[in-house]
Amino acid sequence: MGLGALPVKPGSTTKPVPGYDVRVLDEANRDLPAGQIGSIAIKLPLPPGCLPTLWNNDAGYEASYLTKHPGHYLTGDAGYKDEDGYVYIMSRVDDIINVAGHRLSTGAMEEVLAAHPDIAECAVVGVADDIKGEVPVGFVVTKAGVERSEAEISRELVERVRQQIGPVAAFKTAIVVPRLPKTRSGKILRGTMKKIADGQAYTLPATIDDPAILAEITDALAQNGYARKG
Asked: Could you report the per-residue pLDDT of 153-167, keeping only the tens digit for each?
């Protein structure tokens, strides 16, 4: 019959397709109000056309997609809905950090950092903190030809996050690094960076483009008090 074209809202994936009851849930499986970031899930039953299981692995399907939020299918995405029902995908659920009880998207912080005119690429990870639980730490690579001091750029980035996301983000560290560790396909190894910052043991990813970058990240973190050299 046709529903017509909906108005475009920049940054939104628009409204859910009819048949999909998309919810934004907190850790206790409760619906969150408009504007609050949570886990994006689809209320069961799933509409026709959705895969009901994994090949020869019903138990794995249930454990991966139906257990975390009973009565819902876990998409693995984190985001929010606005007052009009438009969905905004901010990151994966693994990229949501808990800062003093506030659920914050590292993806949203990366958007702020990436908008700085001197920044070529960036990554934000949640680092363990005794007081707040987690705090965000940013890693940034400057564009070619940038000659301003790293300290000045870092101060501007911290201020940008404070202005655009708020003091609640507790974003106080932006580390300028020569490059970011990536897989050969270009995926930034945020999980490995977090383990380095937390002082945890990690396995060298088989798909890493250049293992030497991890030593650079370790040294940069050590200089900022987040990891030990060696």
From this structure: 999 999 999 999 999
